[in-house]
Amino acid sequence: MNKFLTFLRSFQTNPLFTTLAIHAWLAAWLVTAFGVAFPAHRIAILVSGVAVASLKEFWIDHRYEVPPQPYKNAAQDFAGYILGGLLGVVTWLLI
Fold this sequence. Notes:
Shape: flat
Number of helices: 4
Strand content: under 5%
Number of domains: 1
Largest sheet: none
Radius of gyration: 16 Å
Helix content: over 70%
Low-confidence stretches: none
Mean pLDDT: 89
Number of strands: 0
Oligomer: single chain
Order of helices and strands: HHHH
């Protein structure tokens, strides 16, 4: 049991996990909120969400962050947005 708890503690303080969880939570919340508010436009919400997330991560963060964010970090953040979007879709299906 002690090894398992040590593993959980190390995993939850990992910066990659924290970044992924924050981006996924934000995306899931936005997709769920807008999907519930505008159910007829769910596909447009997903497409625009992917477009905005990719623009933010691969263009804005890479060009305007100091120091510039490498594409590897941008891809990790974008993966968090995609994961959150999928969680939002699952939420739509359960509501």
